[in-house]
Each structure stands twice: as C-alpha cells, then as structure tokens.
C-alpha cells in the first residue's frame, strides 16, 4: 500500500504543475509592478522644459496628489495617450510631465521638439520636467514611454501604469486610484 | 581539417550507420565547419577602457547577469535596447567610481526590481528554487544506499554454494562481452 | 480549377486523417482489451492511411506556399512572391500552423515506421502501441483543425503579396533545426506508446524495452542534432557569440533530452538485467511528457522568451488540456498498474547496475533543476509573490557541479561489470586513467594559457577521465580476447577483437566521447574566450592572443540593394606562420533603411575569430569588436558524435536477431516454410 502511494507521487507532482501552468495562461509575464512602489519619489534636480533657468526638485510633488507622466516626442503611443491626459487634467487631476530622452543636436533643438509636441497635441501638464539624458527616468526605473506614476501628497509613489492609458483606464483605474490617495 | 579527421574517424563505423542518416550527418558536419561570413542584427560596439583586467571582467560578469527590463529575455550585455545601453553605461561609471558589485546590483534592483537579477537572491520565496536540487541529491543518495543494501542482501541470502559458482562463471562471461 | 481548390483538398485530407486517427486509436485498443483480432488488425492500415492523408494535407500546404496562394492566411503572413523557392518550402514550418502540421506529419511517419518494423511483435502489443500513438495523433490533429487551421482563407480580400518570412528565419540552420527537433520530440512518443502498451497489457517483462530501445536511440539522436543546430544558429546569427542562453525555449528542448538520456540508460538496465522496470516505464512517460510540455511552453506564451512565437491563449489552453489528458492518464495508469513487487536483481556498490542508477539519479536531478528554473518565475507569479528571473548564473551554478559528478561515475560505468565487481579490480583497471587525467588536466591550463585555472582543470580532468577510461576499457576488452586466441599474434588478435565489438558498444563509446568533446568545448570557450572592443582606423593594429589584427583598408562598397562600409583586416599569427584577411562590413539596406552587421567569422578547429564592425566614431575610425572563441566548434562536433553514437547503437544485430528468435508471435506460413528450408 505504501508503495502504491509512492507510485502516485509523479501524478500529484504533475497535477500541481498543471494547475500552475493553467494559472500561467492568464498571467501576462511582461506586466510587473514598479520597484518604487510605496517608496518616495526619487530625488532629482532638473530644469523645466519651458525655462532652462528654472530648477525643480522632488518638493514639486508634495502637498497634492499628482500624476507624473513620462513622455517624449519620439514616442508614438504618447500621442495616443494625450487625449486621455487632457481629459484627466480637465477633471481636476494635477499632472506633471517628464520629457524623457528628447532627441536632438543640442539643448535648444531638444527643447524645441518637446515644445512642438505639446503645441500639436495639447499640454495637460502643470510643469514639464526636462530630462534629456534620462537620469530621472532611470531612477524611476522607466524602460520605455509612456509610463505614469501616481504620487500622493507626501511624495510617495502609490500606483504605476506601464504603457498608455486608455479611455477605459481613466475611469476604471486612474480616477479611483487618485481618489483613494486623496 | 576537422571534416577530414572526423570523416576518417567515422569511416570506421560506416557500415554500422544507416545510409541516409550517414549522409545527413556528414552534410551537417561539413556545414558546421565551413560556414564563413554571416550577417547579424546590427549590433552596437562600445569602446570602453578599463583600468585593469579585473574591472573589465567584473563589468562583463555584471552585464551578463543582469536582465534587460525591456527585452523579452536577454542580458543587458546582449541587448541593443536603449535601456540596456543606459544600464551598461551606469555600471561602467560606477565601476570607475570604485563601487562594489553588490552596490551596483543593489542600485539596479532599487530601480528595476528583482526582475533584473538573472541570479535570484536566496530568500523566502526562492528557498524551493535553490533548495530542491540539493534536497533531491540527498534523496538520491538515500535511495541509492537503500537500494544497493537491499539488493546486496538479496544476493547474499538467496544463493547456494553451487549457484554462487555458476553466478561467478556467468559474471565472468558477461564481463568479457 | 484543381489548383484553386488545393487548400480545400488539404483541409479535407486533414479531416479524413483525424477520423482515421480516431479509428487507429479506438479499434485496436478495444480489440486488444476484448481479444478481437479483427479489431486489432485495423491498427496498421489505419496508421498508414492516417499518415498518407496528413502527407496529402502537408503537400497541399507546401503547394500553396510554392504557388504563392496568398488567399491562404498562413501563406500571406509568412511568405512572399520574391522569396526563393527553398525558403517558401521551409516557410511551411516557419509559422505556428505549419509547424504543428509538421509535428503531426512526423508523428504519422513514426507511427507508420513502427507499423512496418513490428512484424515480429505480438499482435496485441502492436495494436496497443499503434492505438496509443493514434490517440496522440488524434489530439494533435484536432489541435490543428480546431485551433490552428493552416488552410484558413482570407476571402474575399486577397492581398496582392505576402508579408514575407521573418528574415531571421531565412537561414540554412533554421531550415533544418525545427524538423530535427520535432523528430526527436515526436520520436519519444514511440517509447511512450510501448511503455503504456506494456502497462495496459500487463506485460511488464523486459521485452518491451528491447523493442523500444532502437526507437528511443533514433529519437534521441535527432533531438541531439536539433539542439546542437539551435545552439549553432544562435552563435552565428544573434551576433553576440553566445551559444547557450538558458532561454525557456532552449530549456524546453533540453528537458526531454536529459530525461531521454536517462531513459536510454535505464532501458539498458531493464533489458539486460530485468530490474528497475517501473522506473523505466516512468521515465518513458516523463520523457514524452516533457516533449509535450516543451510544445506547450513554446506555443502558449506563458513564459517570456527571446524567441517570439505568435501566441494565442486558446491554443495554449487546448495544448494544456491535451497535455493534462495524456500525461495525467498515463501517470494514473502507471500508479495503478506498475508492478507492485520489484524483482530482486542483486547487485553491489561497484556494479554497473549501481553506476547506472547513479547516472539516472543525477540526470533526473538535472532535469528537475532545469524544469524548476524554467517555471519558477511562473510559479511565484501565479502565487502573487512577485516577478523574478532565473537565468544563466542559476543554471550554471547547479548544472556544472552535477555534470562533474556525473562524469566521475560515467568514467567507471563502461568498465564495471553487471551485478558485482571488486573495488580493487576496478581500481587496478582505471587507476592509471584516473591519475593520468588528473595530471594532464592540471597541467594543460599552464601550457595553454601560462596560468593555472581550477575551473579549466576541472573541466578538462572530466573530459580526459571519460576519454582515458574508455581507451583503457577498449584495451581491456580487446586484450582479453587476444589472450584467449593465443595462437595468433597479438596484433591480429587485437584487430579481430576490435571487429568483434558490437555496434552497441561502439555507440556507447561514441556517445561518451562526444560528451567529452563537448565538455572540452564548453570549458575552453567559457574560460578562454577573449573579447576586445577597440577604436580602429586604417593602419591601426591590435595584438590579441598571439595574433596581430591590422586594418589595412576601409572602403565604401555598393551591393545590389545595399551600401556598405567594409574594413579589411589583415590577421597575422605571432610566429608569421599564417596570414589572412577578414572583411567585416556594416551594411545599410537601402529599401528598408535597415543597418545590418556583416560579421567576419573565421572558423577553426581550435578557435574561431569573430570580427564585427560597430559605429563610425569620428573621421575615419570605427568601433570594432574582436572576439576569439577557442574550441567553440567542439561543442557541436561533440553533439554530432553523441548523435552518431546513438544511431550506431541501433545497428546492433542483437535487436533484430532477438526479435525474430525470442518472440515468435504467430507462426505464419512464411516463417514456417522458411524454417523448414533451414532444416532441410
């Protein structure tokens, strides 16, 4: 009898594995949580897109729940995301942009591209942090654009969205999250 | 060279190999050795100077054991994606600053999570990952001991003197085969 | 008219094939259970018919590709009218639908072959084996028809031209890689079917193992070649000079290989000694299950892999159900029917039995390790424990020591006798080989590189130990016989003795030597590969590993559809014994604006030279990558030797002779008459 039970072992092992494989079918392996979740927004000191002289740092994000959106004029999906961001801004959500890895020959050309993008597709951002070499993006663990972080009034990251925000996401995920951390 | 040598070595067994499989393997062998110029996806070549070979080796190890967060499944040393290039650059700069491997790895994990570690840390959730192979080796050793012991006893108990002799003769014959 | 309906003919043929597969499965299995010879007799014709109709379907799909029928979705997505005919031919399996159809075709082929070469087997065994293979065929043909129909049309909007085959797949290595791999995967279905048939029929003697051994060897040999081709392709095509990445897709092929290797050895024990019967049955089930699981992992997209296959959750679910039914039922059957009492085949510590047991334990641990590492990220993710990665450092850390231990016992195996051998005798035989391996292995790194390296020494000692112990064994086996025939001179005696060694023995020798060769390759290329990235202009040179690389020219060239910057690099060995030119290029394909690196690769038995051009830095200097890959060819040569070894062993006369002599099924008239002739 004992031996018979031992012979059942392979079957049991397989069934356990099969359950996991089944679960695996409904998991998206490329979707993952940011490492910065529930941690403070990384420190930085960068100029704004509009004004090379104006330096901003992490204190910019304190006092109010803010959506930080990482974008770039080189990123086609960022364009598709703009209407949703404008909608969010209209509904009273505070948005801060990070112009990430803007391409161009020099500082002036890079800024011109970012500015042109906002003129064409609209500017939902209260401020745009200018991050041409991607240092803030790197500290945020950004590996593509667009990405969006929800930062609470204490400057702690509370939610992270990879890829572009769809119209459904606005109502179903983003707004509830904003309210939750208000 | 290699083709010739192997062709000679295999010619000894030619009769034994079914004809078509023989041809196929020869063709394969020839191909493996003769391939010359090849095209590949455009790659980036970064010219970096390291002060000493030890640092250079550390750099290679690090870019080989960190996973590119953007790609499907590639080490940052094997990836052309911009984020991998950024990560390589940071590693290089930090090595020049004299940071330790652990500091550099922690720096990356702080930003991109445990996901970028190809060498998962030993912690609660990875106990099974690291422990099971070792445990299986132990189990194997136990199984081996139990089995050999029981089989040895079976041999000792079951045979008469005469049988033992016949067995010895048989063993001798088998060993000669 | 006929040409226009080719896809429909193919589709129809596929449906008939499915129906025949159902008959091939149900009737013979029911017949064997109820002892109805007529029902059992359906097995062979149905298997042949099933294969014929799958072949027709496959032929139709190939025809659609060759005739550029872009109304067929599969063709439109994976071919192009400009594609050379041979790539159109191979594009058939360069996509999901076609490759699953190829899987089914190969399964049909194996089934047909089993039907042909099983004349000497008892009819109920044949009925069961073919019936079980029919069940597998049924599952896969249903998968093709219901989730991956290759003949689906895109009507009425037929595209004017196809989307073309992925350029990475337009390559010789990748043309033959998948069929080889599938031959291996699917080939293990034969031993699986034999094992299940033995369980069903209650015939758990050693007979089934003898019938299944040749099939297993052939499947294993194909899988070995398939894996080696994949590794070779990654080496030259992906452009980074790596040859094994422990990617889930690679692991999916390695898993059945490891289990299959264990199976080959345990089949030998069961056949020769009648022991470990349940274990061998289990290994046969596990090996084929891992082949199926490889298909699942690759096709379902549950794991991220650098090999991007088109994935579809419904297909994943279908294969998972298929996997669950096949493996679950087999293991359940195993638990219910595996022999309760093991036969007391006696052996002691240093017997070949015990050493093969060690081999099996280690290979199983390796298999579990690879499986664990491959699915662990998925397990944690499913339990909401976060995302982690398991990659080369993990696998190497566990695989290398396990291989070293395996090698130690592997050297002893061939020289040890079955049942029992005195330790002193084994030591006397192999002591010298062991000492020599240790000494030579310890010294070589000093001679080769001028510096001692424990890693290299361990690898080389393992390889040398395998080689030297085999040579010693060959010596032993030939000298014994020469003393017994003492009238002849020593040399002719030895020669005769060599001739008397069986193909099975030579197969073992080749297989083990192959592993030694691969180990040398792995050790050398992992430890002594050199890479240097430099800035280089005309006239600059680089000294690397005793060679001087000088850029003698840099010019712009114009190809048929590209512009290129080509560097001429003169390579000279330090002692001026040889001098040759290599020309890496950086191409810009005008139409697509796509830059491509044309790597200059100089292969050699002892090292490959690998030069790639990066970017233009300033003025006339370029970033260039120089790599020296010592002994890298040995990796694949070793794998080829292993595969050839597997095939050589099949040629052993023993299989045919014993089939005919020991298992006379039904005395058919022809056999009787020939027997009478012999007596007369």
Characterize the structure shown.
The complex is a heterotrimer of chains A (182), B (177) and C (680). With 182 residues, chain A is an alpha/beta fold. Helix content of chain A is 40%, strand content 19%. Chain A is built from 5 helices and 7 strands; from the N terminus they run H-E-E-E-H-E-H-E-H-E-E-H. In chain A, the strands form 2 sheets. Chain A has a 5-stranded mixed sheet. In chain A, strands 1-2 form a two-stranded antiparallel sheet. The model of chain A has no long low-confidence stretch (mean pLDDT 90). By secondary structure, chain B is mainly α. Chain B has 3 domains: 2-34; 53-116, Helicase, Ruva Protein, domain 3, CATH 1.10.8.640; 125-176. The chains are: A alpha/beta (182), B mainly alpha (177), C alpha+beta (680). At the A-C interface, helix 1 of A face helix 11, helix 12 and helix 13 of C. Chain B: Possible subunit of a heme lyase.
Question: How do the strands and helices of this protein lay out in sequence?
Answer:
The complex is a heterotrimer of chains A (182), B (177) and C (680).
Chain A: H1 2-25, E1 45-47, E2 55-57, E3 66-71, H2 76-90, E4 94-100, H3 107-121, E5 127-131, H4 135-139, E6 147-151, E7 157-162, H5 167-180
Parallel strand pairs in A: 3-4, 4-5
Antiparallel strand pairs in A: 1-2, 3-6, 6-7
Chain B: H1 2-11, H2 19-34, E1 38-41, H3 53-65, H4 82-96, H5 101-112, H6 127-158, H7 161-176
Helix pairs in contact in B: 3-4
Chain C: H1 6-34, H2 37-40, H3 43-66, H4 73-78, H5 85-91, H6 96-116, H7 123-147, H8 172-201, H9 207-237, H10 248-273, H11 277-300, H12 313-337, H13 352-382, H14 392-412, H15 423-449, H16 454-484, H17 490-500, H18 503-528, E1 530-536, E2 541-544, E3 547-558, E4 562-573, E5 579-582, E6 585-589, E7 594-602, E8 607-618, E9 621-630, H19 632-650, H20 653-662, H21 669-679
Antiparallel strand pairs in C: 1-9, 2-3, 3-4, 4-5, 4-6, 6-7, 7-8, 8-9
Family (chain B): Belongs to the CcmH/CycL/Ccl2/NrfF family.
Transmembrane segments (chain B): 127-148
Keywords (chain B): Cytochrome c-type biogenesis, Heme, Iron, Membrane, Metal-binding, Signal, Transmembrane, Transmembrane helix
């Amino acid at each position: 009898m004992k031996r018979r039970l031992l012979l059942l072992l392979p079957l049991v092992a397989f069934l356990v594995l099969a359950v996991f494989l089944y679960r695996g079918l409904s998991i998206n392996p490329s979707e993952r949580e940011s490492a910065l979740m529930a941690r403070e927004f990384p420190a930085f000191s960068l100029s704004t897109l509009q004004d090379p002289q104006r330096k901003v740092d992490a204190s910019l994000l304190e006092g109010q729940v803010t959506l930080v959106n990482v974008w770039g004029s080189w990123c086609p999906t960022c364009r598709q995301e703009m209407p949703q961001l404008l909608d969010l801004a209209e509904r009273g959500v505070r948005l801060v942009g990070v112009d990430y890895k803007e391409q161009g020959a020099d500082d002036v050309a890079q800024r011109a591209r970012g500015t042109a993008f906002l003129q064409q597709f609209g500017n939902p951002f209260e401020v745009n942090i200018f991050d041409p070499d991607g240092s803030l993006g790197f500290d945020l663990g950004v590996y593509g654009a667009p990405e969006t972080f929800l930062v609470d009034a204490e400057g702690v990251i509370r939610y992270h969205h990879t890829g572009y925000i769809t119209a459904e996401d606005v109502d179903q995920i983003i707004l509830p999250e904003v309210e939750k951390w208000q | 060279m290699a083709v010739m040598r192997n062709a000679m070595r295999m010619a000894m067994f030619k009769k034994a190999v079914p004809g078509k499989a023989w041809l196929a393997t020869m063709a394969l062998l020839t191909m493996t050795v003769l391939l010359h110029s090849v095209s590949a996806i455009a790659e980036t070549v970064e010219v970096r100077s390291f002060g000493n070979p030890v640092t250079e080796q550390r750099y290679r190890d690090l870019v080989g054991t960190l996973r590119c967060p953007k790609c499907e499944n590639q080490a940052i040393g094997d990836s052309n994606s911009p984020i991998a290039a950024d990560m390589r650059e940071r590693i290089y700069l930090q090595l020049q600053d004299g940071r330790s491997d652990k500091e550099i790895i922690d720096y990356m994990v702080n930003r991109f999570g445990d996901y970028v570690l190809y060498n998962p840390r030993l912690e609660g959730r990875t106990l099974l990952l690291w422990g099971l192979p070792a445990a299986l080796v132990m189990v194997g050793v136990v199984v081996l001991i139990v089995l050999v012991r029981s089989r040895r006893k079976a041999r000792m108990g079951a045979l008469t003197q005469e049988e033992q002799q016949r067995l010895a003769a048989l063993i001798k014959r088998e060993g000669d085969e | 008219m006929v040409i226009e309906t080719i896809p429909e003919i193919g589709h129809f043929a596929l449906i008939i094939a499915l129906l025949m597969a159902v008959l091939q499965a149900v009737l013979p299995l029911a017949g064997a259970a109820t002892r109805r010879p007529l029902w059992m007799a359906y097995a062979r014709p149905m298997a042949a018919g099933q294969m014929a109709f799958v072949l027709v379907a496959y032929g139709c799909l190939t025809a659609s590709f060759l005739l550029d029928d872009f109304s067929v979705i599969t063709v439109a997505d994976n071919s192009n009218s400009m594609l050379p005919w041979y790539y159109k031919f191979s594009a058939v399996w360069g996509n999901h639908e076609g490759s699953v159809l190829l899987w089914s075709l190969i399964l049909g082929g194996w089934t047909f072959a089993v039907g042909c070469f099983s004349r000497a087997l008892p009819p109920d065994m044949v009925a069961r084996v073919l019936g079980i293979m029919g069940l597998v065929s049924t599952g896969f043909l249903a998968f093709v028809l219901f989730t991956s129909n290759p003949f689906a049309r895109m009507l009425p909007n037929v595209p004017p031209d196809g989307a073309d085959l992925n350029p990475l797949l337009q390559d010789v290595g990748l043309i033959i890689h998948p069929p080889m791999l599938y031959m291996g995967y699917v080939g293990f279905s034969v031993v699986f079917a034999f094992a299940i048939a033995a369980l069903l029929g209650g015939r758990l003697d050693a007979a089934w193992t003898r019938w299944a051994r040749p099939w297993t060897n052939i499947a294993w040999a194909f899988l070995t070649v398939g894996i080696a081709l994949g590794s070779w392709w990654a080496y030259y095509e992906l452009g980074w000079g790596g040859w094994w990445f422990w990617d889930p897709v690679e692991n999916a092929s390695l898993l059945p290989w490891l289990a299959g290797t264990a199976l080959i050895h345990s089949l030998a024990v069961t056949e020769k000694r009648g022991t470990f019967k349940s274990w061998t049955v289990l290994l046969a089930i596990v090996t084929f299950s891992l082949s199926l699981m490889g298909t699942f992992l690759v096709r379902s997209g549950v794991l991220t892999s650098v090999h991007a296959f088109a994935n579809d959750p419904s297909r994943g679910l279908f294969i998972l159900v298929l996997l669950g039914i096949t493996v679950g039922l087999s293991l359940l059957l195993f638990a219910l029917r595996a022999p309760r009492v093991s036969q007391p085949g006696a052996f002691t510590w240093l017997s070949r039995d015990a050493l093969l047991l060690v081999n099996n334990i280690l290979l199983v641990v390796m298999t579990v390790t690879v499986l664990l590492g491959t699915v662990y990220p998925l397990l944690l993710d499913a339990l909401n424990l976060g995302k982690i990665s398991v990659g080369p450092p993990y696998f190497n850390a566990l695989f290398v020591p396990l291989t070293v231990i395996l090698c130690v016992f592997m050297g002893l195996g061939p020289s040890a006798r079955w049942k029992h051998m005195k330790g002193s005798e084994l030591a006397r035989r192999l002591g010298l080989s062991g000492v020599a391996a240790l000494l030579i292995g310890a010294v070589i790194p000093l001679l080769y590189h001028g510096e001692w390296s424990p890693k290299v020494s361990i690898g080389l000692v393992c390889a040398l130990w395998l080689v030297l112990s085999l040579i010693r064994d060959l010596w032993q086996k030939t000298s014994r016989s020469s003393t017994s025939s003492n009238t002849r001179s020593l040399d002719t005696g030895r020669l005769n003795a060599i001739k008397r060694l069986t193909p099975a023995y030579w197969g073992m020798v080749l297989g083990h030597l192959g592993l030694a060769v691969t180990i040398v390759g792995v050790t050398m290329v992992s430890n002594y590969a050199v890479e240097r990235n430099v800035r280089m202009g005309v006239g600059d040179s680089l000294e690397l590993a005793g060679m001087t690389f000088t850029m003698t020219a840099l010019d712009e060239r114009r190809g048929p559809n590209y512009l290129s910057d080509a560097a001429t690099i003169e390579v000279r060995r330090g002692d001026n014994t040889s001098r040759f030119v290599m020309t890496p290029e950086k191409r810009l394909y005008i139409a697509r604006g796509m830059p491509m690196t044309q790597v200059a690769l100089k292969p050699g038995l002892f090292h490959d030279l690998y030069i790639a051009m990066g970017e233009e830095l300033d003025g006339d200097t370029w970033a260039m990558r120089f790599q020296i890959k010592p002994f890298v060819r040995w990796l694949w040569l070793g794998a080829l030797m292993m595969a050839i070894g597997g095939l050589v062993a099949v040629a052993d006369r023993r299989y045919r002779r014993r089939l005919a002599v020991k298992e006379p099924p039904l005395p058919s008239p022809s056999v009787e008459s020939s027997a009478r002739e012999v007596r007369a």
